[in-house]
Amino acid sequence: MLTDRQLLILKVIVDEFVDTAQPIGSRNIAKKEQVGFSPATIRNEMADLEELGFLQKTHSSSGRMPSEKGYRFYVDHLMDPLKLTKDEIKRINKYFSHKMIELERVMENSANILSELTQYMTLVLGPEIFETKLKQVQIVPLNQHSAIAILVTDTGHVEHRSFVIPQGLDQSDLEKTVNILNEKLVGVPLVYLDRMIKKEVRGLIKQYTSDFSQAYHLLEEALLIDLPTNLYVSGKGNMLNQPEFNDIEKIKILFSMMESEEQIAPLLKSKEEGTHIFIGRENKIEALNDLSLITSTYTIGEDQVGTIALLGPTRMDYAKAVAMLQLWSKQMSQSLKSWYDEN
Amino acid sequence: MLTDRQLLILKVIVDEFVDTAQPIGSRNIAKKEQVGFSPATIRNEMADLEELGFLQKTHSSSGRMPSEKGYRFYVDHLMDPLKLTKDEIKRINKYFSHKMIELERVMENSANILSELTQYMTLVLGPEIFETKLKQVQIVPLNQHSAIAILVTDTGHVEHRSFVIPQGLDQSDLEKTVNILNEKLVGVPLVYLDRMIKKEVRGLIKQYTSDFSQAYHLLEEALLIDLPTNLYVSGKGNMLNQPEFNDIEKIKILFSMMESEEQIAPLLKSKEEGTHIFIGRENKIEALNDLSLITSTYTIGEDQVGTIALLGPTRMDYAKAVAMLQLWSKQMSQSLKSWYDEN
DNA sequence: TGTTAGCACTCTTTTCATTCGAGTGCTAAT
DNA sequence: ATTAGCACTCGAATGAAAAGAGTGCTAACA
User: Which residue spans adopt a coiled-coil conformation according to this UniProt entry (chains A, B) (predicted)?
Assistant: First the structure.
């Protein structure tokens, strides 16, 4: 068990290191108001804390900095739950006072605003695409020659695609087609749309419309929508300001990793709801081994639909990051709920 | 006037420097096959070329590298018009063999593909927003409570916005509203939409619909669309691989500049059609003073609607960049034309 | 017995001088 | 007109020395 004095010293070291990114020496700790002991005493305590694995040195005569175990302990037991400033709360609430339009815009905006507020990177993962289903199909004629196909999913995602109406197709053909589509495709997960079209709809269209190949071709073109983006990353540039990224090679690795949805998404697919902190090598991906990730799930009603996360150096302001993330995901969930309730 | 030998040496230096990013010494030039003179001779010629302003040294005993004037001369008179590889041409043509859907997607994809092909940054500027006009308004009911407003512009941009139907509004109110909107707002530039709604439409709605304030509120919410994005930037990460960006501060400046549409857009609003090259300080913006920008306009039919550009270090492969850009903008124009002709 | 002052020791960072090498510019020879 | 030769310049790399921050240990103190 750690003594109160050790706890205090550990806390001071973490707080100070988060602030300065420099190893902390005993003299500097002794200068702090809350600390009433001499540098020598602190050195002894620090030696003990190091032996216990909470602190580490960069070299034999350097000051101490927290180890991953130190951060973990800090996060679990020492961290002051941070009050956000009124300005920050205001800013967040202001964003959510507007009506939510589409989940995707909310995700994108969230990523942008949070990374600006925290100065870390923000990752926002949306609902499992595999579970997103088609809710409605509409075709809106623009003029004689062209029309827009509109697809709405159960997450509120709206996809539109303009296309040229094949010659020989008339209004009633279009209407019939739309009816068939709605009948057969509503409720089908987006990822199965193309298979479903081939399997079920193809035959029906042949049966009901006057010009089969035209209509079918049109269909394929209009309905093969790109799957909605599922991951938003924002604030990469912020990392350039972090001293741990003064090395261009590190930046390259991080940036290129962030381009690849396949690599990031699994990190965020957290199984349990709530807020979770992954410090350094607690992240299984090597490129993130000197970063920390804080994730928080958000919901629509009861359904946990996605994750919003902050990524920063292990030396990050955990209290602030957690506070921000929790407030944000709460507001976001509320806001999504009220929007979905109305629909 | 430069002698043939000077031209040859200048060309070799530019080509070599583009390749290696290192100042070139006389010995290395002499080693080139095409060059049949001794290092001493070359040194004399280089001294002359330097005096004329085509070459420069990094310090008094370094090799030579091209000055901006040198690049300018190279680009105007020496550059071999590069043949793209079959692979590259194939890749470009393949992209344009698909049907174009929306200008914005074309822009976005163009930025991505070109920056991958060239390893430089790509900027794509779309049509003047001020000139983009509303072409059609549609409202598609989703269910009892909500609907989607769809706005189509004359550039093919489709904007959708879901909204909640105010209680008390019935189907016929909606229809009337849409009719009024189409009558009054079609042809209005997007940037004037809100003013126009306030000025013209407000009164009419009051007159025709049973519940004025509801309908008007709905309208404001649904029609205050974000203006379509006009600028796409891609390939920022490529710059990390350029040796001229081994300094983090430079990267920060460049990246933060690229976040600001207001700063970049003016660069691309070129008045004359065709391809233009701006080398180093020929760019009026200071942050781009050691970069080069190559712009190329693209058209829809006769109308020059936008600009596509590559941004790289002054030491860039101008021949390849120009070739890529020209092929791309040509294909893009053709492709857009055929799409618009069909509409 | 817990705390602290004092001091030798360690390791990094900074500075300065030296050396090394690539490359020039000039001169003299071809 | 060209080129070989050589002194000279400057940056980059190397290394030694000094400065500075901080530790660990010992001995003294309350």
Answer: none
Enter the tokens of residue B118. 């060239």
- Give alpha helix (H) positions in chain A: 4-20, 26-31, 39-51, 68-73, 86-97, 103-118, 171-185, 193-196, 202-208, 212-223, 248-259, 261-268, 318-342
In this structure, the strands spanning B121-125 and B303-313 are: antiparallel
DSSP label at residue B77: I
Rounded CA separation B109/B101 (Å) = 11
Residue A237 corresponds to which tokens in the numbers above?
Answer: 């540039």
Contact (Cβ atoms closer than 8 angstroms) between residue A326 and residue B129: no
CB spacing of B142 vs A164 below 8 angstroms: no
User: CA B61 – C1' D3 distance (Å)?
Assistant: 20
Closest nucleotide (C1' vs CA) to B50 is C24
Distance A238 CA to D4 C1' (A): 57
User: Cβ of B25 < 7 Å from strand D?
Assistant: no
Give pLDDT tens digits for A212-236: 777 777 777 767 666 667 899 999 9
Instruction: Give me the amino acid identity at B243.
Output: P
* Percent of chain B residues topping a pLDDT of 90: 53
Provide the pLDDT for residue B318.
Answer: 97
Maximum average pLDDT range among A203-217, A222-236, B151-165: A222-236
Contact A148 B148 (CB under 8 A): no
Strand D close to A28 by CB, under 7 A? yes
Which residue spans within chain B are E strands per DSSP?
55-57, 64-66, 121-125, 134-141, 146-153, 158-164, 231-234, 275-279, 291-300, 303-313
CA A23 to C1' D19, in angstroms, rounded, equals: 19
CB pair distance less than 8 Å for B237 and A252: yes
Closest approach of B159 to chain A, Cα-based (Å): 9
Under DSSP, is residue B146 helix (H, G, I), strand (E, B) or coil?
strand
Q: Chain D positions under 7 Å from a protein CB? A: 2-5, 8-11, 20-26
Cβ proximity of A29 and A80 under 8 Å: no
Q: Does A148 touch chain B (CB under 8 A)?
A: yes
Half-sphere exposure of B213 (CA within 13 A, CB side): 0
Q: How confident is the model at residue B255 (pLDDT cuts 50, 70, 90)?
A: very high
Question: Locate tokens 């492969």: which residue?
Answer: B317
Give yes or no for CB of A329 within 7 Å of strand D. Answer: no
Report CB contact under 8 Å: B143, A259. Answer: no
**Cβ neighbours around B314 below 10 Å, total:** 26
Q: pLDDT confidence of A5, banded at 50, 70, 90?
A: very high
Burial category of B94 from C-beta neighbours within 10 Å (exposed 0-12, middle 13-18, buried 19 and up): exposed
CA–CA gap between residue A160 and residue A139 (Å, rounded): 9
How many Cβ contacts (< 8 angstroms) between chains A and B?
A: 81
- Candidates A158, A226, A254, partner chain B, best to mutate (most B CBs within 10 A): A158
Mind listing the domains of chain B with CATH numbers? 4-78 (1.10.10.10), 86-127+230-342 (3.30.450.40), 130-223 (3.30.390.10)
3-class DSSP state for residue B102?
Answer: coil
**DSSP assigned state of A283:** S
Please, which positions of strand C sit below 7 A from a protein CB? 3-6, 9-12, 21-27
pLDDT tens for residues A40-98? 999 999 999 999 999 999 999 999 999 999 999 999 999 998 889 999 999 999 999 87
A152 contacts on B by Cβ (under 8 Å): 142, 148
Angle of helix B212-223 relative to helix B171-185, nearest 10 degrees, comes to: 60
The reply to whether residue A146 touches residue B343, judged by beta carbons under 8 angstroms, is yes
